[in-house]
Amino acid sequence: MIVVKFLGGAKKSFNSDQLKIDESDIPIRDLLELLLKLKPRDTSDLDFENILIAVNGSDSSAMEGKSTIVRNGDVVSIIPVIHGGSSKKLCFEIEKKQICIFEISGKKNAGATFIDNLRKTYPKIKFQAVSANFILGASHLKKILSLSINAEKNNALLSNKIETDILMRFALTLQISNAINSAGIKPSVNFILITIGNKIFPDSLNHEISLISSDLLSKNNSVFIKKHFDISKKHIDSVYSKTPLEDILVEKASILF
Hints:
By secondary structure, this protein is an alpha+beta fold.
Protein backbone atom coordinates (compact mmCIF):
# COMPACT_ATOMS: atom_id res chain seq x y z
CA MET A 1 0.00 0.00 0.00
CA ILE A 2 1.16 3.55 -0.80
CA VAL A 3 0.06 6.60 1.18
CA VAL A 4 -0.37 9.73 -0.94
CA LYS A 5 -0.45 13.00 0.98
CA PHE A 6 -1.86 16.18 -0.57
CA LEU A 7 -0.47 19.56 0.44
CA GLY A 8 -1.62 23.09 -0.36
CA GLY A 9 -4.13 23.37 -3.21
CA ALA A 10 -3.90 19.63 -3.92
CA LYS A 11 -6.17 19.03 -0.91
CA LYS A 12 -9.02 20.85 -2.66
CA SER A 13 -8.56 18.79 -5.81
CA PHE A 14 -9.07 15.54 -3.89
CA ASN A 15 -11.26 16.76 -0.99
CA SER A 16 -8.81 15.01 1.32
CA ASP A 17 -5.43 15.29 3.02
CA GLN A 18 -4.40 11.84 1.85
CA LEU A 19 -5.34 8.67 -0.01
CA LYS A 20 -4.24 5.08 0.50
CA ILE A 21 -3.47 3.26 -2.73
CA ASP A 22 -3.45 -0.55 -2.85
CA GLU A 23 -0.51 -0.64 -5.24
CA SER A 24 3.24 -0.98 -4.90
CA ASP A 25 6.41 -1.16 -7.00
CA ILE A 26 5.06 1.24 -9.62
CA PRO A 27 6.71 4.30 -11.19
CA ILE A 28 5.46 7.74 -10.20
CA ARG A 29 4.03 8.32 -13.69
CA ASP A 30 1.70 5.30 -13.22
CA LEU A 31 0.72 6.56 -9.78
CA LEU A 32 -0.21 9.94 -11.27
CA GLU A 33 -2.38 8.27 -13.90
CA LEU A 34 -4.13 6.37 -11.14
CA LEU A 35 -4.66 9.56 -9.14
CA LEU A 36 -6.21 11.24 -12.18
CA LYS A 37 -8.79 8.44 -12.33
CA LEU A 38 -9.49 8.71 -8.59
CA LYS A 39 -9.84 12.50 -8.53
CA PRO A 40 -13.47 13.62 -7.95
CA ARG A 41 -14.98 15.26 -11.03
CA ASP A 42 -16.52 18.19 -9.19
CA THR A 43 -13.30 19.48 -7.62
CA SER A 44 -10.74 22.00 -8.86
CA ASP A 45 -8.24 20.81 -11.45
CA LEU A 46 -4.67 19.98 -10.44
CA ASP A 47 -1.89 20.68 -12.93
CA PHE A 48 0.13 17.46 -12.75
CA GLU A 49 2.88 19.07 -14.83
CA ASN A 50 3.37 21.79 -12.23
CA ILE A 51 3.80 19.87 -9.00
CA LEU A 52 6.62 18.75 -6.74
CA ILE A 53 6.53 15.05 -5.85
CA ALA A 54 8.36 13.88 -2.73
CA VAL A 55 8.89 10.23 -1.80
CA ASN A 56 9.43 9.74 1.92
CA GLY A 57 10.35 13.42 2.18
CA SER A 58 12.87 13.48 -0.69
CA ASP A 59 12.26 15.35 -3.95
CA SER A 60 11.70 12.77 -6.71
CA SER A 61 13.37 15.07 -9.25
CA ALA A 62 16.64 14.42 -7.39
CA MET A 63 16.08 10.67 -7.89
CA GLU A 64 14.65 9.24 -11.12
CA GLY A 65 11.89 11.77 -11.68
CA LYS A 66 8.62 10.22 -12.79
CA SER A 67 10.44 6.92 -13.31
CA THR A 68 11.11 6.69 -9.56
CA ILE A 69 9.63 3.43 -8.26
CA VAL A 70 7.23 3.79 -5.33
CA ARG A 71 7.20 0.76 -3.06
CA ASN A 72 4.97 -0.72 -0.39
CA GLY A 73 4.87 1.52 2.68
CA ASP A 74 6.20 4.60 0.90
CA VAL A 75 4.66 8.01 1.55
CA VAL A 76 4.28 10.19 -1.53
CA SER A 77 3.59 13.90 -1.06
CA ILE A 78 2.01 15.98 -3.83
CA ILE A 79 2.87 19.67 -3.56
CA PRO A 80 1.61 22.17 -6.15
CA VAL A 81 4.28 24.57 -7.38
CA ILE A 82 2.92 28.02 -6.62
CA HIS A 83 3.57 31.02 -8.84
CA GLY A 84 2.78 34.41 -7.41
CA GLY A 85 1.91 37.40 -9.64
CA SER A 86 3.39 36.94 -13.10
CA SER A 87 5.63 33.96 -12.33
CA LYS A 88 7.48 35.94 -9.66
CA LYS A 89 7.59 33.26 -6.97
CA LEU A 90 8.20 29.53 -6.79
CA CYS A 91 7.35 27.62 -3.60
CA PHE A 92 7.83 23.94 -2.84
CA GLU A 93 8.81 21.56 -0.04
CA ILE A 94 11.89 19.36 0.50
CA GLU A 95 12.35 17.19 3.60
CA LYS A 96 9.53 19.08 5.36
CA LYS A 97 11.29 22.39 4.70
CA GLN A 98 9.20 25.11 3.08
CA ILE A 99 11.16 26.86 0.34
CA CYS A 100 10.26 29.95 -1.67
CA ILE A 101 12.31 31.37 -4.53
CA PHE A 102 12.31 34.92 -5.89
CA GLU A 103 14.36 36.59 -8.60
CA ILE A 104 15.54 40.08 -7.69
CA SER A 105 16.66 42.60 -10.29
CA GLY A 106 20.30 43.61 -9.95
CA LYS A 107 19.30 47.18 -10.82
CA LYS A 108 17.16 47.44 -7.68
CA ASN A 109 18.56 48.61 -4.35
CA ALA A 110 18.64 45.08 -2.93
CA GLY A 111 22.12 43.76 -2.30
CA ALA A 112 23.95 42.15 0.60
CA THR A 113 22.61 44.75 3.06
CA PHE A 114 19.07 43.85 2.05
CA ILE A 115 19.75 40.14 2.74
CA ASP A 116 21.36 40.94 6.11
CA ASN A 117 18.31 42.99 7.12
CA LEU A 118 16.00 40.11 6.18
CA ARG A 119 18.05 37.75 8.36
CA LYS A 120 17.75 40.13 11.31
CA THR A 121 14.02 40.68 10.82
CA TYR A 122 13.18 36.99 10.28
CA PRO A 123 15.74 35.04 12.36
CA LYS A 124 13.87 31.73 12.04
CA ILE A 125 14.12 31.81 8.24
CA LYS A 126 17.32 31.06 6.31
CA PHE A 127 18.20 33.28 3.36
CA GLN A 128 20.73 32.90 0.58
CA ALA A 129 21.27 34.78 -2.66
CA VAL A 130 22.79 33.19 -5.76
CA SER A 131 23.61 34.97 -9.00
CA ALA A 132 20.87 34.15 -11.49
CA ASN A 133 23.58 33.38 -14.05
CA PHE A 134 24.46 30.17 -12.19
CA ILE A 135 20.98 28.66 -12.25
CA LEU A 136 19.95 26.68 -15.30
CA GLY A 137 16.27 26.44 -14.38
CA ALA A 138 13.76 25.39 -11.73
CA SER A 139 14.70 21.71 -11.89
CA HIS A 140 18.42 22.46 -11.46
CA LEU A 141 17.61 24.77 -8.56
CA LYS A 142 15.47 22.15 -6.78
CA LYS A 143 18.08 19.43 -7.16
CA ILE A 144 20.90 21.53 -5.72
CA LEU A 145 18.72 22.61 -2.79
CA SER A 146 17.80 18.98 -2.20
CA LEU A 147 21.51 18.11 -2.02
CA SER A 148 22.14 20.84 0.56
CA ILE A 149 19.09 20.06 2.68
CA ASN A 150 19.92 16.35 2.77
CA ALA A 151 23.55 17.18 3.57
CA GLU A 152 22.37 19.22 6.55
CA LYS A 153 20.11 16.35 7.64
CA ASN A 154 23.05 13.91 7.48
CA ASN A 155 25.61 16.28 9.08
CA ALA A 156 27.56 16.40 5.83
CA LEU A 157 27.49 20.10 4.95
CA LEU A 158 30.41 21.56 3.02
CA SER A 159 30.46 24.40 5.55
CA ASN A 160 29.00 25.02 8.98
CA LYS A 161 25.91 26.71 7.50
CA ILE A 162 23.48 25.42 4.89
CA GLU A 163 23.36 28.88 3.30
CA THR A 164 27.07 28.65 2.49
CA ASP A 165 26.71 25.04 1.35
CA ILE A 166 24.07 26.12 -1.17
CA LEU A 167 26.28 28.82 -2.65
CA MET A 168 29.27 26.47 -2.88
CA ARG A 169 27.25 23.82 -4.72
CA PHE A 170 25.95 26.30 -7.30
CA ALA A 171 29.50 27.65 -7.76
CA LEU A 172 30.96 24.09 -7.80
CA THR A 173 33.78 24.97 -5.44
CA LEU A 174 35.00 24.03 -1.97
CA GLN A 175 36.43 27.51 -1.43
CA ILE A 176 33.94 29.84 0.27
CA SER A 177 35.68 32.96 -1.05
CA ASN A 178 35.55 31.60 -4.61
CA ALA A 179 31.86 30.79 -4.22
CA ILE A 180 31.09 34.33 -3.04
CA ASN A 181 33.18 35.96 -5.76
CA SER A 182 31.69 33.90 -8.60
CA ALA A 183 28.09 33.04 -7.63
CA GLY A 184 27.38 35.72 -5.05
CA ILE A 185 25.52 39.02 -5.48
CA LYS A 186 27.01 41.41 -8.05
CA PRO A 187 25.98 44.93 -9.12
CA SER A 188 23.53 45.02 -12.05
CA VAL A 189 23.21 41.20 -12.12
CA ASN A 190 19.91 39.56 -11.17
CA PHE A 191 20.08 37.19 -8.23
CA ILE A 192 17.89 34.39 -6.94
CA LEU A 193 16.76 34.84 -3.34
CA ILE A 194 16.28 31.49 -1.62
CA THR A 195 14.21 31.38 1.58
CA ILE A 196 14.04 28.25 3.74
CA GLY A 197 11.78 27.74 6.76
CA ASN A 198 9.83 25.12 8.66
CA LYS A 199 6.38 26.49 7.84
CA ILE A 200 4.54 29.00 5.68
CA PHE A 201 6.30 32.36 5.58
CA PRO A 202 4.77 35.54 7.05
CA ASP A 203 2.73 37.69 4.67
CA SER A 204 4.96 40.63 5.58
CA LEU A 205 8.00 38.79 4.17
CA ASN A 206 6.22 37.82 0.94
CA HIS A 207 5.00 41.39 0.50
CA GLU A 208 8.42 42.94 1.16
CA ILE A 209 10.17 40.72 -1.38
CA SER A 210 7.42 40.82 -4.01
CA LEU A 211 7.79 44.61 -4.23
CA ILE A 212 11.25 44.23 -5.78
CA SER A 213 11.01 40.82 -7.47
CA SER A 214 11.00 40.28 -11.22
CA ASP A 215 9.93 37.45 -13.54
CA LEU A 216 11.44 34.23 -12.26
CA LEU A 217 14.07 32.20 -14.17
CA SER A 218 13.18 33.78 -17.48
CA LYS A 219 16.73 33.78 -18.88
CA ASN A 220 18.53 30.85 -20.54
CA ASN A 221 21.94 30.67 -18.83
CA SER A 222 23.25 27.54 -20.55
CA VAL A 223 25.86 29.39 -22.66
CA PHE A 224 27.25 31.26 -19.64
CA ILE A 225 27.32 28.11 -17.48
CA LYS A 226 29.08 25.97 -20.10
CA LYS A 227 31.73 28.65 -20.61
CA HIS A 228 32.23 29.39 -16.90
CA PHE A 229 32.65 25.73 -15.90
CA ASP A 230 34.46 24.78 -19.13
CA ILE A 231 31.88 22.14 -20.07
CA SER A 232 32.48 21.07 -23.66
CA LYS A 233 30.03 19.80 -26.26
CA LYS A 234 31.88 16.47 -26.16
CA HIS A 235 31.21 16.21 -22.44
CA ILE A 236 27.52 17.03 -22.89
CA ASP A 237 27.15 14.57 -25.78
CA SER A 238 28.59 11.82 -23.59
CA VAL A 239 25.70 12.12 -21.13
CA TYR A 240 22.67 10.12 -22.22
CA SER A 241 19.89 12.20 -20.74
CA LYS A 242 17.17 14.66 -21.71
CA THR A 243 18.91 17.25 -19.51
CA PRO A 244 22.65 16.52 -19.87
CA LEU A 245 23.97 19.94 -18.77
CA GLU A 246 21.75 19.95 -15.69
CA ASP A 247 22.82 16.40 -14.82
CA ILE A 248 26.50 17.33 -15.15
CA LEU A 249 26.05 20.30 -12.80
CA VAL A 250 24.15 18.26 -10.22
CA GLU A 251 26.69 15.42 -10.35
CA LYS A 252 29.58 17.85 -9.84
CA ALA A 253 27.73 19.52 -6.95
CA SER A 254 26.98 16.18 -5.29
CA ILE A 255 30.61 14.99 -5.18
CA LEU A 256 32.15 18.10 -3.61
CA PHE A 257 34.05 17.03 -0.49
